[in-house]
């Protein structure tokens, strides 16, 4: 396992009439459950759509804040990152990427699961599943954000219909600068980063 790999877990955040965030807070507030039923009846279809999007973004923000390489990002930066991720839906058996492909994107799982597969060098034998599948809230492909020109060390295969969010290295750098600069905010984190990529 990479020093920066792992899974994330969290729950949806909260919104109101005025803004989506306030509406979520009102609906999810435990102490206001009776009043919230009345609030729901007053919400327009457009507000429901805003609510749904805001809850998803809040959920993504929580997941991203638990990713090791993003722990030095400020809350505002995490919010920008969450809104920069592109949606992608894959069917059972499809590959997110194949072993040997150039690494360019980081991925977050929002639904379904993804299995790591190590393939034979000649490509004739079927790939071998390695480890447990990754599920909702977990992530993979983070090496792509660190260095250009690297290749995938394994394949990632979808199990069941799976919903992903991704961001390319180019888009990440245009928004936040090189990953190494972000990690320098925490000396211990940066030292681990340097040690890993100096091998």
Structure summary:
The chain has 199 residues and is an alpha+beta fold.
Question: What does it look like?
Answer:
By secondary structure, the protein is α+β, with helices and mostly antiparallel strands. It has a domain at 86-198: Jelly Rolls (Sandwich). It has helices spanning 20-28, 33-42, 45-65, 75-84, 143-146, 169-176, 179-183, 187-197, and strands at 86-90, 95-97, 105-118, 128-129, 139-140, 155-168. Helix 4 (75-84) packs antiparallel against helix 6 (169-176). The longest helix is centred in the N-terminal third of the chain and has 21 residues, at 45-65. The two termini are 15 Å apart.
The CATH homology group name of one domain = Jelly Rolls
Q: Assign a percent range to the helix content.
A: 25-40%
Q: Classify the beta-strand content into a percent band.
A: 15-25%
Distance between the termini: 15 Å
CATH class of one domain: Mainly Beta
Helix tally? 8
- Strand-pairing-aware structural class: alpha+beta
- Could you list the spans in which at least 5 consecutive residues all have pLDDT below 50? 6-20
Query: Would you identify the CATH architecture of one domain?
Result: Sandwich
Order of helices and strands: HHHHEEEEEHEHHH
Task: Provide the CATH topology of one domain.
Answer: Jelly Rolls
Rg over C-alpha atoms, rounded to the nearest angstrom: 19 Å
Count the beta strands: 6
* Coarse morphology: flat
> Biggest β-sheet, characterized?
6 strands, antiparallel
Overall mean pLDDT: 83
Pfam families: cNMP_binding
GO cellular component, one term: cytosol
Protein name: Cyclic nucleotide-binding domain-containing protein
InterPro entries: cAMP-dep_PK_reg_su-like, cNMP-bd_dom, cNMP-bd_dom_sf, RmlC-like_jellyroll
């Amino acid at each position: 396992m990479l020093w920066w790999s792992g899974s994330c877990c969290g729950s949806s955040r909260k919104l109101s009439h005025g803004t989506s965030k306030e509406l979520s807070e009102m609906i999810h507030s435990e102490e206001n459950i009776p009043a919230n039923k009345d609030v729901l009846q007053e919400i327009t279809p457009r507000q429901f759509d805003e609510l749904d999007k805001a809850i998803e973004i809040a959920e993504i923000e929580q997941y991203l804040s638990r990713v090791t390489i993003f722990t030095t990002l400020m809350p505002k930066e995490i919010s920008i990152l969450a809104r920069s991720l592109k949606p992608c839906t894959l069917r059972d058996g499809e590959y997110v990427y194949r072993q040997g492909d150039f690494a360019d994107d980081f991925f977050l799982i929002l639904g379904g699961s993804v299995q790591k597969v190590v393939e034979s060098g000649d490509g004739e034998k079927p790939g071998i599943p390695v480890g447990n599948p990754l599920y909702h809230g977990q992530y993979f492909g983070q090496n792509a954000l660190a260095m250009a020109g690297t290749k995938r060390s394994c394949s990632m295969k979808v199990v069941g219909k799976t919903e992903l969010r991704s961001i390319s290295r180019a888009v990440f750098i245009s928004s936040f600068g090189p990953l190494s600069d972000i990690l320098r905010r925490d000396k211990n984190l940066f030292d681990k980063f340097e040690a890993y990529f100096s091998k």
